[in-house]
Design brief:
The chain has 103 residues and is α+β, with helices and mostly antiparallel strands. The chain contains 3 helices and 4 strands; from the N terminus they run ββαββαα.
């Protein structure tokens, strides 16, 4: 899967960068965690600092447009993001617990 950054916008008040990206994949749409790991690697960040907000794949296309928030640290992410977004992205909180229940 290829990840291309479309735009980046700094948000210093919330200690993050808002990123819009395009993802080209060969098979089905990859999972949110696979996309998060690929985007984190592309940006040289830790996966716990990246929160995937939106993935939009048009029917029959092998291209996905997504939106993500890239924080300076996982503590900033846990402080700002809503609980359900932390659970979806399996962000670890300060006390070491994963915010998601294992299915």
């Amino acid at each position: 899967m290829d990840v291309d950054i479309i735009s980046e916008k700094e948000n210093p008040m919330l200690h993050r960068t808002d990123v819009t990206f395009e993802l080209v994949h060969d098979e089905a749409t990859p999972s949110r965690l696979q996309v998060r790991d690929s985007l984190a690697a592309k940006l040289n960040k830790n996966a716990d600092e990246v929160v995937i907000r939106k993935l939009d794949t048009k029917f029959g296309m092998r291209k996905t447009i997504g939106a993500a928030k890239v924080y300076e640290s996982s503590a900033h992410a846990a402080e700002v993001e809503q609980e359900h977004m932390l659970e979806r992205n399996k962000i670890v909180t300060e006390d070491g617990d994963v915010e998601a229940e294992e299915a």
